Amino acid sequence: MSRRCALCGELKKVSQFRYIKYFDSRRTICKRCESRERQNRRRLVEQHVKKHGVTPGIMERLETEASQTARKQATGIVLSNLPQERLKMYRWAQRVSRICGTVLLLSILFGVFAFIDRSFGWLALLLLTGVVAVVGGRYFNRRHAAPVDAEITGRLSSIYPLLFQERLRERIEYERFYTSPEWKIMRKNFLRTRRKINGHYVCDYCQKPIWGDDVTVDHFKPRSKFPDLALKITNLRIAHRQCNSSKGDTIISEE
Fold this sequence. Notes:
By secondary structure, the protein is mainly alpha-helical.
């Protein structure tokens, strides 16, 4: 039995399609083409890392986080500087917009039932209600909400680039630190020393044993706030992944 590769167009045996017998009978790319695709993707990722310092996935995540944070900051700045009366009208326009959207949705829903039942009088009333909702929502939005939203967008365009570059620098510095020879050697020695005490690892936060690959080395005083203690072995703690993640950058009392 043979199959034609969708990428190179060659007719090949079924065995030349990776795992096609056991996992995915619809697979149409042969092993050789799949290997080339993986190499091309790996090459693109390497080029992206050389150019930007991080992988495309991390870059996309940083962009999303920076955009969300910048929008919150821009919204807070603009709304805090608005006069009280204008802020009240902006909030009211937002409520009216949501109410009009709900009314429009309900009018469409009931209009469908009215059309099915051939209740044309109700259908005309519902259509009129939907039109009024659309016009009213647009009027309030254009008069009171759109100018404020434009100010927020303008402020966002000035905050986002700086915030994104700051996040990117922090991530690049993070990658460089945790892949440095100094950190790898210190982490290895620290783990070896702690394991000799009990024969296994014990979490310094929940005091429960750690097994397998769940062990992490945490900076008790966060490296982001105390960079001078990053390579101090007295500042290191053994922790589960979950304990380490939940602690984050908070500073826990040693008592």
